[in-house]
Amino acid sequence: MECQAGNCSIHCPGGCGCISESENPDRCNCFCSDPIFRWNGDLDTVELETVVNLYTKDFPLKELALVFERITPYHISIPAKRLDTYVTVRISNTALGEILEEIGLHIFEEKEEDPDCPDCGCGKGDYKPT
Description:
It is a single chain. The protein is mainly beta. The protein has one domain (about 1-110). Helix content is about 15%, strand content about 40%. It contains 2 helices and 9 strands. Strands 5-4-3-6-8 form a 5-stranded antiparallel beta sheet. A two-stranded antiparallel ribbon has the order 1-2. It is globular. This is DUF2007 domain-containing protein. It comes from Desmospora profundinema.
């Protein structure tokens, strides 16, 4: 399966997805769900007001929620009855917040910075206790 948004594309054996900023197509990411989650690109932080393009094919909604949690300053929630849902969408020139609402994801709360792990609060990096 192949997905593309902006100037990023990816080929995956299972579900795939890509997201890019509409105004800057070089700021993009693509991701695979199967057999293991893979990620490429340099779109590291996106605000809910940012206008983006999103394209997914047979991508698990629960993994898509993790993608959005990784690139936004918010925790993202998913209704339990939709945990096993797969998403195929092509949405262009739409604010990220509107996309989240359209596909049934919810903004739970803004992440707080952890002084022991400055990267953990924004969904990046791995927390390694000392």
